[in-house]
Amino acid sequence: MNEKEIAREAREAHVEREYWESLSKEVPKAKQRKLPSLVEQYVNSASEVSYYNEIPAALSYFVLLGQICKDMAAIPHGRRTDDTRIQLIWMQTSGTGKSELYNFFGPVSNYVFEVLNANHGTNFDIMDVEDTTDAGLIGTITEERETLTDDEGNATVVDVPVQVYGALEGSGLVAYDEFEYSGVFKSSQHKENVVMYMNKFMNSLHGNNHLIKKKLAKGHVLVCDCQRSIFATTYIPTNMTRVIAETGLMQRSVLFIREIPIELQNELRAKVADSYGTVADSAQPINQFGDAIVKVYECLKEHFEESGKDRTKTMRFAPNFRDSIKAETKKFENYVQSSRPSVLSLANNFITRMQGSMARMAVLCAITEAPTIRTKKNRYYVTDKHVQQSSRLIRACYKSLISWLDTSLRQERISGQDKLGIKIFRAEYDNLKPVADSEGRVNKQQLLENVRKSTGKGQATIYRNYKELAKTGVFNEAKKGRSVYTKIVEKEVKE
Known about the structure:
Layout: H1 3-32, H2 37-46, H3 54-68, E1 75-77, E2 80-82, E3 88-92, H4 98-120, E4 124-128, H5 134-138, E5 139-149, E6 155-165, E7 171-176, H6 189-201, E8 212-215, E9 221-224, E10 229-234, H7 240-247, H8 249-252, E11 254-258, H9 262-275, H10 283-306, E12 316-317, H11 319-337, H12 341-347, H13 351-369, E13 381-382, H14 384-432, E14 442-443, H15 444-455, H16 459-470, E15 475-480, E16 483-488
Parallel strand pairs: 3-10, 3-11, 4-7, 7-10, 12-13
Antiparallel strand pairs: 1-2, 5-6, 8-9, 14-16, 15-16
Helix pairs in contact: 1-14, 2-3, 3-4, 4-10, 11-13, 11-14, 12-14, 13-14, 14-15, 14-16, 15-16
């Protein structure tokens, strides 16, 4: 291995070490975030059951609030209008608290929905996705036989189309506890459909671009009006980078992705062990936060009605709001610039969508704190403070994404080199067969030199690839004098 390659590997090891350290330090940083008081209390309570997951805990609060506020507040920008929904996709190492957080977030959401439905005539619910077929997601149309009678008493039996709604229809939450089985990560026509459905309903609710339409048999047209918010969790699928590159789905959501280092997993297991034998009142925090979020909703509703029921005029925006959005966006742009080109090309595609999520969460921060502001005229005024609050969360998502991409793409590159080596070695071995000995072996040094010339790679890289392949039994070597001769054992060569 030459000095350049040694230096490169040292840099890569340093990047990886920094990544793990940043994740470990994320916990105390999260507790210092100056989010609205209600959010901080919610996060602290959630952290008692889902350890070291402060960032997704805070995001889950905004998923719920953004959903219940979507009909009363919006973010206008020029000729466009964004709604307040937050779509969260959380990918993390298995067994590190994802289900535990949902077991806190889900009951709080259910409590809020039940109160709002009973007192305000809303129609929120939670749909846990189990059936990921087209019919299960967007619905289908069946025919039921009905008897119609005319004015003269003549009866006619007819088939009447009836729409059966899928999980995405309506308002509330759509929860994926195992998003890896959503169909997004498999190469199939169904995957293309699922990605299209999700991209559609993530469009702004201001217009009809969020409606999912599908032509069915007998000329029926299915229309799915999905106004839901996603709370999706999964471990990190092996083909995640390809999904990011090809679908654009992850860019439209708030994506929080991280692999938890062993050291932090050990700490997590120790905290779980400490909780054995203890009993806590699980209903108390659900009622507490449910009532607080209902109060936020009712305060907003009062303001919404007093403002003429125009969603685009519910919020007022300070001039420094726009300046702060630009400044925080610039931080994202600067942060990614030093990344390797492969990381830069993927991560850069997230910035525009992250800017939108940052603006939405800034609005939701202003909505959250409104009931605590005594003077009504000072409520629902979005400032740079709210942008900075939301930016801390979005920035944590972005940093985690870039770190994961850097690690993942580097591993894919190394793996790709090994696979390429198999093909190249075999091609150059075939070229040398005319000068092979009676047992089919060729000069090993000559083989390595030919591979170097054909690939343009360094001697150290070629030799490292050869050694890795040799461990699998691909090569059969024999020493003759001072030279080593080798041949490829065809039956053991794998693509």
